[in-house]
Write a structure and sequence with these properties.
This protein is α+β, with helices and mostly antiparallel strands and 341 residues long. The chain has eight helices and twelve strands. About 3% of the residues have low confidence.
Length: 341
Amino acid sequence: MLTAKKNRKKWFFKAGHKKYQPKCKRECTFESHVEEGKWKRLKHDDFNLVARRRTDGTYHLPDSNGNQGSTKLLRPTAVPRKSICDVQTDPLDCSMPVRMRDMVSMWNTALTSHVNCNPDCHRQESKFDLRPYRQLLVYSFEVYCARCGFVHTKTKCYRVVPSSGPGRKAAAVNKGAVTALLDTTIGATQFQRVVCGMDMVSPHLTSLQRITNKVGGELVVYNHRDMRIKARAVANAIKMRGVTDERVNVQVDGRYNSQTYGRRGEMGLSATQVVSFTREDNTDYKFCIDMVVLDKLCSTAQWLKGRGYNVRCPDHAGCSSNFNAADTISGHGKYHHITMS
């Protein structure tokens, strides 16, 4: 047994060895199949300008009639994709949203504290500067003196959103910007370009996504509460008319993630997601009084089924769907439960 282990170790590959097997006397050499002088390797931008891409992924060099050119090109090396946030910019050289009243209060407090702590430095020429601490779009600042080393307490130059929970309070500018962003058709990357066009430091996509998830959940709760208030207002308006029939006329419509229609009465048979809205027709405002989102997709169930667990959506823990995958969501109108009182 010891002899077998000793012989086996001789065949193990170790870093720095030129040969994989100690008894092999032939060394492996790699010959290049590219002949010098006949092939060219252009830069990435020049290659995209000269070569044209076929449908199968290959490239060719055609003329106006589609004939192949005689030049032989090698594919360029991959160029790393740069984000807008990769540009290193000093925040003090850019514009930033600052609440001026907090800024004035910070400088007054910092100068007073500097006089009390280091009166000798104050009599000379002091060298004050700022250390910015960014939170998405807004900043907190520290005032310090480069001559004597005085550092003032970090001050927030923005308004915060009141919250009873623990942790850092969110800035009103950040939540307001993301709330307005969710009401538009642009995404986070386009929002970065807008911020850069305003001569400001662009926020990172990860930070934007994190605060968007928080604000999105709050908007869902607010919208459902607003729809209940509107439904109650419509019901009260019908009662004030003094009519005998107090039923509310509504229209229901939905949008599927599938374009395959079996019949007009049963659309969305192959869909896995649907967003359905209910609109009232008793007033001139045409309020949206209810919304239903049905979703069959669940990545957690797919992961568990691939490992042998028998789970069923939406009855397992960590399920992201709210609808059974075996049922059809074509009749989305029956899932609306509207309370008019």
